[in-house]
Amino acid sequence: MMTKINTSAYMPTNLDVVNAGENRVRISAYPFESGFGITLAHPLRRLLYSSTVGFAPTSVKIEGVTHEFDSMRGMFEDVAHFIINLKSIRFKIKDLSTSRVTANYSFKGTKEIKGVDLMNDELDIVTPDIHLASINEDAELNFTVVIEKGIGYVPSEIIREQINDGFIALDAFFTPVKRAIYDIENILVEDNPDYEKVIFTIETDGQISPVDAFKHSLKAMYSQMSVFNNVLEADVISQDADGIDSKFASLLQKISDLNLSVRSFNSLDKAQIKYVAEIALLSEHELKDLKNLGKKSFDEIKSIMEEIGFPVGTISTEIAEVLRKKITELKANKE
Q1: I need a labelling partner for 28 at 20 to 30 A (CA). Which of 126, 134, 212, 294 fits?
Q2: pTM of the prediction?
């Protein structure tokens, strides 16, 4: 049997999303060409952990406490243990447009304080049963917590540089993704067993759904890769040490090199247009509006620009910026 020679990569067509438990989902996509599965899966897994937005306490101020190794009368836990418990509680700012909330709490008398007790008008608690502290009948516990929105992990050393006096900086674990793994299985396509199926298993802490976390990681990947979009332009400018490559040398010619009729040349010259690139940067409407430029001259200039491969009004925004800088440099050097 003759081996088929492909001219393009096989495009995966199947996507399955299955609920695998509370805040847990399994996402499968297939079939991928051999080797394509890990090429896509590995960076997506990294982005799930590093780019998914979450919420975390970044600092705390406890009345009567001066540092994290202190203790407080009437509270069973010492301050260090209290902070460990506080960092285990997963907050969620209700207004997603808000990036920071400062919450004040006051507890008095015998009580076991849990995550649910920290819920208020601005904050939800997605781990309501986590224990924070136990206080006795003589205790009064007053504290303030700053909750912020962020990604990844930020150590207390960095947070300490931006907190107010009296607050204790906390290590901030923002990522809401508890677990993100992928498996790659072989799958049969047209008698070829070497195609691949990518299976993601994603679990979050409840601040965000696992499907939304996956969507955010995809957006982050697309956003990071968008820097290469200019490569897809049909008329990409390739930069070198001199600023522009030889493909665009014709644009840096003077208009006197175009062998224009006297009438056309004079119209451009009076408009202070000295270089071919300046014509390429004009729209057809702008070219028509040049003073004393008649229809014959317009048609002549338009035809010449098409011949050299840069029709009027077709230069992309990114390339236009580079050309304008180069023209400014050329004119400045002539002065």
Answers
A1: 126
A2: 0.65
